[in-house]
Design goal:
The complex is a heterodimer of chains A (about 725) and B (about 150).
Chain A (H helix, E strand, L loop, with lengths): L2 H4 L3 H10 L24 H4 E3 L5 E5 L8 H13 L6 E5 L21 H28 L6 E4 L2 E4 L4 E4 H5 L34 H4 L16 E7 L7 E4 L1 H5 L4 E7 L2 E6 L2 H10 L2 E3 L9 H13 L6 E7 L2 H6 L3 E9 L11 E7 L2 E6 L4 H12 L6 E5 L13 H13 L3 E4 L2 H6 L7 E9 L5 E11 L2 H4 L2 H6 L21 E8 L13 H19 L3 H8 L3 H14 L9 E12 L3 E14 L4 E12 L6 H20 L5 E2 L2 E2 L17 E7 L13 H16 L5 E2 L3 H8 L1
Parallel strand pairs in A: 2-3, 7-17, 13-27, 15-16, 19-20, 23-26
Antiparallel strand pairs in A: 1-2, 4-5, 5-6, 7-10, 8-11, 9-10, 12-20, 13-18, 14-15, 14-17, 18-19, 21-22, 22-23, 24-25
Helix pairs in contact in A: 4-5, 12-13, 17-21, 20-21
Chain B lengths: L1 E5 L2 E5 L7 H8 L18 E4 L2 E4 L5 H4 L3 E3 L11 H8 L9 H14 L5 H8 L9 H13 L2
Parallel strand pairs in B: 1-5
Antiparallel strand pairs in B: 1-2, 3-4, 3-5
Helix pairs in contact in B: 3-6
């Protein structure tokens, strides 16, 4: 068990019991005494409760935003418990230390690391509970525990042909003060899995197919007021004056609440609040980003990657001496790329219901960082974190945006100011205006080849806004020696045979809001890297698949290329402006294992209009151990669709520091009519589940760019590939 | 006070005539299956039926809905046994799920008029409904499944 698991406290136990209140448990797998309070390590009590009727209640610890970990995690627990899945009831856990992600040490969902992170801790918890049940049956039958085995939800003594269901055991068993120790070798062998690797239905789907699923925006509490917020158009700008006094004279408008970076309109009905918001006028103070123009900014970023002298440059990754290798190279191949700002466009606009009373704070919200929401809500209300109850609601999409929780803090501030519960809801227009973007980036890659054409040195310079400072704060960046791991994600090329490598981050500070965005920096970085791999292949006069097979030294990556090529029927000859392109991307962190995706696209090019239609996508996804194959396929497919949307149309532009787009009408995300046929093959390559929720996203843009290069000899080097840009590139 | 027929029940609504039907349903009547996504008829999350026709509740004033039959996801015949709902479950279509009520109501409008739609008809009819999670293939498959009566 991890150190973090050992720190699990009774808070979670009480929270879960409270969540289960009203059920008549003769016995629950919760320590009867005060063991938890005395510091006895236990996860079991936090996660599992068994009723005498055989119902097994399992707490889902992670915030759910559509990734289905709230099915996968309980399923993993049920696997080790050897539970009958039909008897399992999934409950959303409270926000408490017992449910912290073992690596993040927080209830926090980012980086597609939820299943990977909880994996060993929750298997151990399930196995512990199973062991308690076996020991109780052994005692009752007066036989050695070693003679007992389990079948789904039953302990069996084969020698005497006796069996006891888990519910029956629950009616007499006692949970020992000291829970049994479970060593990793006592866990189930993958060959014995009954649930992992076999599809079950997601527990949340029926509610989501009947309109019954509850999101923060759906919550109503007695006495609640409605609020919406005009946020400063430019980051850091503050309200100087407003016409709130005039709006307050309107019937139903209860308060105008100025906040650090916004002005909230509060009233008794949503429609009156929204009408007042439309007429709210605020004077904003100037801020560092007030003059920022992203079109000019892109040129500046490009100038900085060409010549970074005078700029702050931080080494993100280094292997060997790439600069020296470039100087001594027989030939240097260079390429430049840019990516524009993009917005999350999560379907549920940011919303939080908050109730601040003399007793404490309660919030209902969809957040990827529930424990931070609790801590920051406590600070905003001026109470201890124990006085804050956070209800983790289903998220109407997260995609990284809800890793920032300023909307929770603002809801608490407004509720505190008006002394009543408040639902603070963003309008879509304000959600767009307050976009926290994946940064704009410019890339310059220089590759030095030796006389034999081998890669001696690879330098990748990336100019981009900082993200880590806005998600985690300056201390985190300082602790990482200035390395922004979100921007620099997968800027290295470890799968390829590259003798020396250098990735540098040229800091940009345009003064606009940034965030983790699905796939983080790996998306733009894979775009640049995989386009360059095709440039090298073209230079060598080789087929892009054959070239990658030679250059890849990683066995799993080579397998993924082979599988994808086989799916697509490679080699594919271009015809009538229908071309084919391939790209590879990784997901995860090296210490925990990385998933690999290889994608081939079939793209039809309309040269006159500059339109690109992607018709077919073949993706080979190496995910380690697939826990729920169908869901993995859907997650990868979703991330391919996301990547396609970003490649073809998504962009945010800034003028005078403010977002120019207004709604989903001018921030275009992919619709069903542009959906290609997508085929995904899952490769099982190990016994650990690797990240999947963002897998494949980074492959789409370079694969399209490579397809167009193969067709036309021209390189699409700026994301997104708008018709104007495509026409300009082909001209 | 306006009288509004919602899911077969006439309800008295204390809201101005120009109030978007969306807020009447969600906040006045607590029928929260209908979702707010954009407010400008760009995403389809708020799709409900007016006299059986799919419309966007976010741009439909209360006055326009008076005297007509409003059907929301909560009023879909059969509830969880509705063939579209069953198809949605069988295809495991939802991810975050937020757009899915609107998708289902939009699809119901199609099947009411075109019981056996072609794939092209489905795509054309569903193109106004955004799913940001990218579950479009499952949505199309679910509509096909419901239409086939499987």
């Amino acid at each position: 068990m991890t150190k973090n698991a050992a720190q699990a406290t009774g808070i979670g136990r009480r929270g879960f019991l409270k969540a289960s209140a009203g059920l008549a448990f003769a016995f629950t797998l919760v320590e009867a005494g005060d063991a938890a309070a005395q510091g006895t390590p236990s996860r079991l009590n936090a996660y599992i409760a068994i009723g005498t009727d055989g119902t097994i209640r399992i707490a889902a610890p992670a915030p759910e935003m559509g990734q289905a970990t709230n099915t996968a995690l309980p399923l993993i627990i049920a696997e080790e418990l050897d539970a009958d899945w039909a008897k399992v009831v999934v409950e959303t856990a409270p926000v408490a230390a017992a449910y912290d992600h073992p690596i993040f040490r927080a209830q926090f969902v980012v980086g597609s690391l939820t299943t990977r992170g909880y994996w060993m801790a929750i298997r151990t918890a399930g196995a512990q509970a199973r062991r308690v049940l076996i020991d109780a049956a052994a005692q009752r039958w007066n036989v050695p525990a070693s003679e007992l085995s389990t079948e789904p939800s039953a302990v069996v003594h084969k020698a005497s042909n006796r069996r006891l269901s888990y519910g029956e055991i629950a009616s007499f068993a006692q949970v020992p003060a000291q829970l049994p120790e479970i060593q990793p070798d006592m866990l189930k062998k993958p060959a014995d899995f009954r649930l992992i690797g076999r599809d079950v239905r997601r527990w949340d789907v029926p509610a989501k197919a009947t309109g019954k699923a509850v999101y923060a925006i759906d919550v109503q509490v007695p006495g609640m007021l409605y609020a919406t917020l005009a946020r400063s158009p430019v980051m850091g700008s503050t309200p100087q004056g407003h016409n709130g006094a005039e709006l307050l004279r309107r019937p139903g408008i209860v308060a105008i609440v100025p906040l650090a970076q916004g002005v909230a309109v509060v009233g008794d009905k949503i429609e009156t609040v929204l009408a007042a918001r439309a007429d709210l006028k605020v004077d904003w103070s100037p801020a560092p980003g007030s003059n920022f123009d992203s079109e000019r900014g892109r040129e500046m970023y490009l100038a900085h990657v060409r010549d970074p002298s005078g700029q702050k440059v931080v080494v993100g990754r280094r292997t060997g001496d790439a600069n020296a290798a470039l100087q001594g190279a027989a030939r240097v191949v260079s390429g430049e790329f840019t990516t524009d700002y993009v917005y999350h466009a999560q379907m549920e606009p940011l919303t939080c219901v908050a109730s601040v009373t003399a007793d404490g704070v309660e919030v209902w919200t969809g957040t990827q960082w529930a424990s931070r929401a609790r801590d920051d809500a406590a600070k905003a209300a001026g109470v201890a974190p124990e006085k804050v109850k956070v209800n983790m609601m289903q998220m109407g999409g997260g995609f990284g945006r809800r890793a920032q929780i300023e909307y929770v803090v603002e809801a608490v501030e407004v509720s505190k100011a008006v002394g009543k519960p408040v639902k603070l809801m963003s309008t879509r227009e304000d959600d767009v205006a307050n976009a926290h973007c994946r940064p704009m980036t410019a890339h310059k890659i220089d590759i030095g080849l030796d006389a034999g054409g081998k890669i001696a040195g690879w330098r990748h310079r990336i100019a981009a806004d900082l993200v880590v400072t806005q998600v985690y704060g300056q201390p985190r960046l300082d602790a990482q020696n200035g390395v922004d791991h979100i921007v620099m994600a997968h800027a290295d090329v470890p799968l390829y045979d590259v003798a020396s490598h250098l990735a540098e981050h040229v800091y940009e500070a345009p003064g606009v809001r940034s965030a983790a965005w699905r796939g983080i920096g790996a998306g733009p970085n894979a775009f640049a890297i995989e386009a360059m791999i095709d440039e090298l292949a073209a230079l060598a006069g080789e087929d892009p698949v054959a070239y990658r097979m030679k250059l890849l030294k990683d066995r799993r990556a080579r397998t993924a290329v082979e599988v994808a090529a086989d799916m697509a029927g490679w080699p594919k000859a271009p015809r009538n402006d229908v071309g084919y392109g391939i790209a590879l991307s990784r997901l995860g962190v090296p210490q925990l294992g990385e998933a690999i995706a290889v994608t081939i696209v079939e793209a039809a090019l309309d040269r006159a209009r500059g339109n690109i239609a992607v018709r077919n996508v073949w993706c080979a996804a190496d995910v380690g151990l697939p826990v729920q194959p169908r869901n993995i396929r859907q997650q990868v497919e979703g991330s391919l669709v996301w990547g396609l949307s970003a490649a073809l149309s998504e962009r945010i532009t800034f003028k005078n520091g403010a977002v120019q787009q207004q709604n989903l009408s001018d921030y275009e995300v992919l619709r069903v009519s542009r959906l290609p046929k997508i085929e995904i093959n899952i490769i099982r390559s190990g016994e650990i589940p690797l990240p999947v929720g963002e897998l494949g996203l980074g492959t789409i843009a370079p694969a399209i760019s490579n397809a167009v290069r193969a067709l036309t000899g021209k390189r699409l080097a700026g994301l997104p590939f708008t018709p104007e840009r495509v026409r300009a590139t082909l001209a | 006070m306006a009288n509004l027929n919602v899911n077969g029940v006439v309800r008295q609504i204390d809201a101005a005539p120009d109030t978007p039907l969306l807020w009447v349903l969600r906040e006045h009547l607590k029928l929260t299956g209908t979702k707010y996504g954009c407010g400008v008829a760009a995403c389809g999350a708020c799709t409900v039926h007016l006299d059986g026709e799919p419309i966007r509740a976010c741009v439909t004033p209360l006055s326009h809905a008076e005297g007509k039959r409003v059907t929301t996801i909560e009023g879909l015949p059969g509830g969880e046994n509705n063939r579209l709902v069953q198809a949605w479950i069988a295809e495991q279509a939802p991810q975050c799920g937020y757009c899915q009520s609107g998708q289902i109501m939009q699809a119901a409008g199609l099947l009411a008029k075109t019981p056996k739609p072609s794939r092209e008809q489905i795509v054309e009819h569903m193109d106004g409904n955004i799913c940001r999670c990218g579950s479009y293939a499952q949505i199309v498959a679910a509509v096909e499944r419901a239409a086939s009566g499987r």
